[in-house]
Amino acid sequence: MSNCRRCGAPQALELKNGRVVCEFCATSSLPLAGSGLLEDIIDLGCEAQTDCPGCGTRLRSGLIEGQAVAWCSDCRGMLFADVAFAAAVRIRRAAFGEYGRAPRPLDPQALERRIACSRCRRPMQVHPYYGPGNVVVDSCYPCGLVWIDAGELVQIEQAPGRR
Ligand SMILES: [Zn+2]
Ligand SMILES: [Zn+2]
Ligand SMILES: [Zn+2]
Q1: What's residue 74's pLDDT?
Q2: What is the pTM of this model?
Q3: Cα of 134 from ligand 2 centre, angstroms
Q4: 3 CA distance to ligand 1 centroid (A)?
Q5: Helical H runs in the chain?
Q6: Ligand nearest 59 Cα, by number?
Q7: Are 97 and 103 contacting, i.e. CB atoms less than 8 angstroms apart?
Q8: Ligand 2 centre and the CA of 105: distance in Å?
Q9: Cα(76) to centroid of ligand 1, in Å?
Q10: Strand 42-51's sheet: what is its strand order?
């Protein structure tokens, strides 16, 4: 449990669009490293050739479970090729074990955000993820890309269901 930087209130251990939001003063912040809420990303030490669709920061090249990812060092969102995303989900769910952590309900507000594909600049399709975890993902089907916010892979990984 951590406390809100602004008002000091204890903060819930769950994320909203990749950020911890204070219930009392609505200040939002990234979860701390080591909180277990964020994905561990191996940084490959170079920039990716695209910008973050969420915040505009130049993405960095990285690896998650051996899968290539372009990730944002600011908002910690992640851009995957769809096959790499499916592989990362499969590997993480298999490794997590059998005890699932019930995810919070899907946040309908997350379906209202619109972001543009980093590659083709067309609007991404926002939709509930078809697997477990109650997360909302953004897909560009022509480019075969998936954007997920910070912590959503952890939420998918830990949700109950078949592994
Ligand atoms: Zn607060
Ligand atoms: Zn970002
Ligand atoms: Zn695209």
Answers
A1: 92
A2: 0.87
A3: 21
A4: 8
A5: 82-96, 152-158
A6: 2
A7: no
A8: 24
A9: 21
A10: 42-51, 58-64, 67-71, 78-81, 145-148, 136-140, 125-128
